Amino acid sequence: MNNNFDRNFSEQELVRREKYKKLVEQNKDPFRETFFDRTHNTKELLEKYNGFSKEELQSKNGEQISTAGRIRLFREAGKKAIFANIQDQVGMIQIYVREDEIGAEAFESFSDLDLGDIIGITGVMMKTDHGELTIRVKKYVLLTKAMKPLPDKHAGISDIEEKYRRRYVDLIVNPETRDVFIKRNKIIRTIQKTLDDKGYMEVETPILHSIRGGATAQPFTTFYNALNNDFYLRVAPELHLKRCIVGGFEGVYEIGRLFRNEGISTRHNPEFTTIEIYVAYKNMYFVMDLCEELIRTCAMAVNGKTTLSYGGYDLDLGKPFKRLHMVDAIRDIKGIDFWKPMTFEEAKKIADEHKIKIEKHHSTVGHIINLFYEEFVEETIKEPTFVYGHPKEISPLAKANADDPRFTDRFELFILNREYANAFSELNNPIDQFERFLDQVKESDQGNEEANDMDIDFVEALEYGLPPTGGIGIGIDRLVMLLTNSESIKDVILFPQMKPRG
Fold this sequence. Notes:
It is a single chain. By secondary structure, this protein is of the alpha+beta class. The protein folds into 2 domains: about 10-150, CATH 2.40.50.140; about 170-320 and about 385-490, BirA Bifunctional Protein, domain 2 (2-Layer Sandwich), CATH 3.30.930. Helix content is about 35%, strand content about 25%. An 8-stranded mixed sheet has the order 6-10-11-18-17-16-15-14, sandwiched between helices. A 5-stranded mixed barrel has the order 1-2-3-5-4. The protein has a 3-stranded antiparallel sheet with strand order 7-9-8, with no helix packed on it. Strand 8 (about 220-225) and strand 9 form a beta hairpin. The protein is elongated, with a radius of gyration of 29 Å.
C-alpha cells in the first residue's frame, strides 16, 4: 500500500496558501468564523427587491440586508470600486464594493480575495444604470478561504470522470447539475406526499440481511463480527415489508438504498435507490394504476407537464400506459407462440435455432420464454408499457395466474428499452412459497448466483396469514434520469461509484 501523501501544489494554490498565511499572521484567520446571520438568500433578495426602480431603492437606503455566498466573478470598476458576483444554493447576485464605503484597509483586503472564497456581506439594495439588482456593500467578512481555484468559467470540468469524482466542484460551477438534484429531491418528496395522503406509512427495514432474498440479484457479502457470520447488503427490502403487512399494516413503503454486486454502466450503479410499496387487499392491476399516478404526479411536480423528450424521443406520460403480455410480445416480434404447451426439449430446440444461450440453471420452458423476451423484445419497447405475465420459474415471490398457472400476476414497466418498475400480486400461499424457495435453492446449486436462499422465517410469517397484497418497486434513479433528461445514472447520483484512477 502506498502511503506517500506528498502533494504538488500548482502556482495558484501556492499563492492562495501564502495569502492565507498572511491572514493568520494578521490575526484574521477566516476558519475561526463559525456563524454568519443571513437575512435573505439570493433568490429572496431578487423576489423582494427586483420589482423596484433604481429611484425607489435609493429611497430605501437605510434598509440593510445580510447574505453570504461564494465569489464567482470579479470586475473592477475603476481604482476605488469593484463589482463581484456571489453564489449560494439558490442563485447568484451582483455586489458593489467601494473603498469610500468600507474603508481603505478593508477595500485592499477585498481586492486580494480570490474566486471561490466564501464571504458574508451586509449592505443595501440598489440598481445599476443597466437595471441590474445589486447589493451595495457596507461591510464584509471572509468566512472561508478557497485553497484551490475553480475550473475556468468557459471550459468548465473538461474531464467527464472528474465531474463525478469531484461532484462538489461540479455542483459549484454547473447550475444544471444543482438543478438535477433539486428535482431529485422534489421527486422523492412528491412520492412521499402522494403515498402519505393515501394513508400509507413509511417504514425502515434492515440493510444487513442474514440470507439472500427479495430479488434475483448478486449481493455484496460482509462479515458480522458480533454474530460470527456472513451477512448480505440487501438487494431488496421486499420480504421485510411484506412481514409488515402480515403484522396488520395495510399500506407501507420504504425509500432507500439497495446494493447489487453487478456491473457499472450508464444504466447501472451497484448502490442505487428504490421505493417499494405494499398495499393490502390490492392486486397487480391496482398497482399498475398507482405506478402511472406516481410517475405523472412527479412529472408535473418537476416539469409542470407530462410531455417530455428523452434522448431525442418524445413521450407523453399523460396517456394510459400500454399493457402487453410477455408471450404476446414474443409472438408479435418473433412469430413464436409460447402459449402452446411444449416440453423443455421442444423449447430448447427453438432457442438453439435462434442462438439463445442456455445456462445450466435454465431448466424449464419458463426460463426460455424469459430469455426470448430479454433478447428480442426489451430493445423494441419505446412507449411506457406494462409487460406482464412473467413465467412462474423466474418470479419466486409472485402469485400464479388463476387461469394459467404457468405464468404469474407480475409486471415490469418499460420505457425506452429500460425497466423502471417491477410489481406483483404477491404470493401469499406459504406452501407454494416454500416450494418456490426450494426451486431457487436448486438453481443456486446449479450455478445461478442471483437465486434466492430459503427464508424459513418468511414462510412462517406467511403461515400467520398475508392478505391479498399488491406490491411494487420503482427505481428512483432511473425515474430521475427520465424526468431530467439525464443521459447517465451517474448524472443523478450525487456520489456514484467510480473505477479507481488508472
